[in-house]
Write a structure and sequence with these properties.
With about 325 residues, the chain is an alpha/beta fold. It is about 35% helix and about 15% strand. The chain is built from twelve helices and twelve strands. The radius of gyration is 22 Å and the shape is elongated.
């Protein structure tokens, strides 16, 4: 019987995964293995791995001689050495389409909250202050410019949802043809122009070595003093210390962040306590339906490979050249 190990998890229930693997006749073994040595010792006879936060290196792969597939909860696979996996004939699968509606909703919720200063005013009312003028100036949203950094599925959904609000929408994505943007009424702009001209900048890029701290002091310096920054993608794309400095120096007006470089947030993080910052605990992916879909698809990616099939959500497609999957 094939064995699949779960390296680490913080879900209160694994009932969905257990059901899928039982149905497929595969042994599913949850663990809490966080270090490389723990994973090698605990998962040595693994045919497949399911991972949440654990980093899977070449060293770990070499310590798991039967390993055929690694499946990650979520979209990003920056915690997995893709090159090493491909060299060793190991499929890497993810779940790229389970929370498009949820993340785009969260991005737009943060946008509206920051723009209309909802959380700020709510806190003021609870403190006994009934005075709308403390939020001045608030400009009309219609006619403002929304700049999207990245134009994948989630950013496109944000663009669709923003259109009825009368926003002027532009996007930067070096991997997407401008025609794909204009088809949705979105103008292509180079990154620096987008930063300079946008009233709202919303980050939807994947985390790679090229996007690490893409939003840094220099990028924030280009933004308008009245602009707001939204990030629902990956924390390390935004240099949080730079954001704190920009907010403190009134280089930008506000920020709505669902993801941070370090999660949970550090107690001494300068963003805490800033009235022009909205922070949520990496919840943008979540709804009951999206969690069910995520858990089902993360299991199915493993099952497909162990049953000899090309997985639906294969990340490292070059690996197929050395495999006999059908």
């Amino acid at each position: 019987m094939n064995k699949v190990y779960l390296t680490d998890y913080d879900y209160p229930s694994l009932a969905v995964e257990i059901k899928e693997f039982q149905r497929a006749g595969i042994s599913f073994i949850p663990t809490q293995s966080h270090s490389a040595q723990e994973m090698i010792d605990t998962c040595r006879d693994a045919d497949g791995l399911v991972v949440q936060y654990a980093e899977i290196s070449a060293e770990i792969m070499d310590g798991l001689p039967r390993l055929k597939v690694i499946s990650r909860y979520g979209v990003g696979v920056d915690t997995i050495d893709l090159e090493a996996a491909t060299q060793r004939g190991i499929c890497v699968v993810n779940v790229p389409d389970y929370c498009i509606d949820e993340v785009s909703n969260q991005a737009f919720a943060l946008l509206l909250d920051c723009w209309r200063r909802v959380t700020f005013l709510n806190s003021a009312v609870h403190r006994g202050c009934w005075n709308y003028a403390i939020a001045k100036p608030i400009m009309r949203l219609r006619g403002q410019k929304l700049g999207l950094i990245g134009f994948g599925k989630i950013a496109r959904e944000v663009a669709i949802k923003a259109t009825p609000f009368g926003l002027d929408i532009a996007a930067y994505d070096p991997f997407i043809k401008p025609e794909a943007m204009t088809a949705l009424g979105v103008a292509y702009q180079p990154l620096q122009q987008l930063l300079r001209e946008s009233d709202i900048v919303s980050v939807h890029a994947p985390f790679t070595k090229d996007t690490y701290h893409l939003i840094n002091d220099d990028a924030l310096q280009l933004m308008k003093p009245a602009a707001i920054l939204i990030n629902t993608s990956r924390g390390p794309i935004v240099d949080e210390q730079a954001v704190a400095r920009a907010l403190h120096q009134h280089k930008i007006a506000g920020a709505g962040l669902d993801v941070l470089e370090q999660e949970p947030i550090r107690p001494d993080d300068p963003l805490l306590g800033m009235e022009n910052v909205i922070l949520t605990p990496h919840i943008s992916w979540y709804s009951e339906e999206s969690e069910q879909e995520l858990k089902t698809k993360v299991a199915m990616g493993v099952i497909e490979v162990l049953n000899g099939r090309i997985p639906t959500y294969l990340v490292n497609k070059d690996v197929l050249a050395g495999l006999s999957l059908r």
